[in-house]
Structures are given as C-alpha cells and as structure tokens.
C-alpha cells in the first residue's frame, strides 16, 4: 500500500496527482511523435489523451501489485505541468517495481526528469518497501539510458531484437537499482 504525501516538493518541482485540468498540458506532449518515438504507443489524439488522463487521475495511490502509480510533475516557478512519472508495482513476492518517465521536450536536458525520478525511488524503496526497481528502454533512446545511468541504475541487460515495436525488431536495455544500493548512495 502506498499513499504518497501529496504534494511532494523537490528543489524545482511539485509532484502531485493528475486532475482534469491537466488535459491540455498532458496532450501537448503525449501528441508529439518525438516523445513517443521509443515508446510502445503512438502520438495520441485529444480523445486518447483524455482517456489516459481519466485513468491517471484514478491512480494516485497503490493498493495492490499489478497497479501503477501516476504522478504529475509541475514546475514550481510557473505552475506548468511538464512531465509525468509512473511507478508500476510489478510484484509483491519479489518486492519489485518499474519506473517510467515522460517529459515535454521543451523541458528536456535541464535535470528535471532526474530530479523527479529521485522521488520515485524514495517512494518505491522507502515508502513501499521495494527491493528492486528497474527501468527499460529502447537501446536507441539515449536520453532515457543517460537518465537511468545518471540516477545510479546499473545496466543489467542489452537484449537483442527481443521486441517487435512499431514494425521493427528492437533492442531493449534493462537498468535496475536495489534498495541496498539506494541506501548507500
Ligand atoms: C527520457 C527523458 C525523460 C529524459 O529527460 P531529460 O530531460 O533528458 O532528463 P534530464 O534533463 O534529467 O537529464 C538526465 C541525463 O541525461 C542526459 N541527456 C539528456 N538528453 C540526452 C541526449 N539526447 N543525449 C545524451 N544525453 C542526454 C542529461 O544530460 C543528463 O545527464 P547527466 O545526468 O549526466 O547530466 C526525456 O528524454 C523524455 O521524456 N523522452 C521521451 C519519452 C521517453 O522516451 N521516456 C523514456 C521511456 S523508456
């Protein structure tokens, strides 16, 4: 069970649940081909973003494995929604979870994703009691791989053409961190 103490603050960001008012801002990046290039989904129509947003609004807490936590990331300075975070609780038995991070390209390369993802680790390891948190990306997704390396995750695997994504066989990288590694940082 995980009930984050919203709103959570980092130096430059507020992490909070999604609300209906987030539709325009969420759609401004979920609709972009450069954002979805290495993701499993295609750029979304407004109706598709609205449906995803409805689901995210209902995912502000975690009660059972198999569920995911959806967190909106807002810039303190402007109040603008700039990204979204996901923490999947993949297994109770193995105490494992997976992270996902998507930011608006206007706000890439400023360390916001790393700053926000640090909070996801805190929630997963300290509040949910996870043993291992992993992240996966397309091997061509340099920004995602750099982000995970910068967060101190270990590259555990480079899987060759293990998935057929957007019509092509795609290599996948697997990164992970253990709670013991998190504590040592
Ligand atoms: C993945 C993503 C969240 C990274 O965001 P970001 O804004 O680059 O992240 P940060 O600014 O916090 O930077 C993290 C690190 O990656 C580096 N980096 C960012 N873009 C890079 C690029 N194109 N090439 C090389 N390094 C890059 C940053 O310099 C930083 O490195 P550092 O820690 O050594 O300083 C962002 O690119 C994104 O939203 N992409 C689209 C969605 C996506 O693919 N998400 C990942 C799903 S697996």
From TrEMBL:
The taxonomy runs: Bacteria, Bacillati, Actinomycetota, Actinomycetes, Pseudonocardiales
PROSITE patterns referenced in this protein's UniProt entry, alphabetically: GNAT
| SUPFAM superfamilies recorded | Acyl-CoA N-acyltransferases (Nat) (SSF55729)
Q: Which InterPro entries match?
A: Acyl_CoA_acyltransferase (IPR016181), GNAT_dom (IPR000182), N-acetyltransferase (IPR051531)
According to UniProt, the name of this protein is: N-acetyltransferase
Residue ranges constituting the N-acetyltransferase domain according to the UniProt record:
13-180
Q: State the Pfam families in the record.
A: Acetyltransf_3 (PF13302)
* Source organism: Amycolatopsis deserti
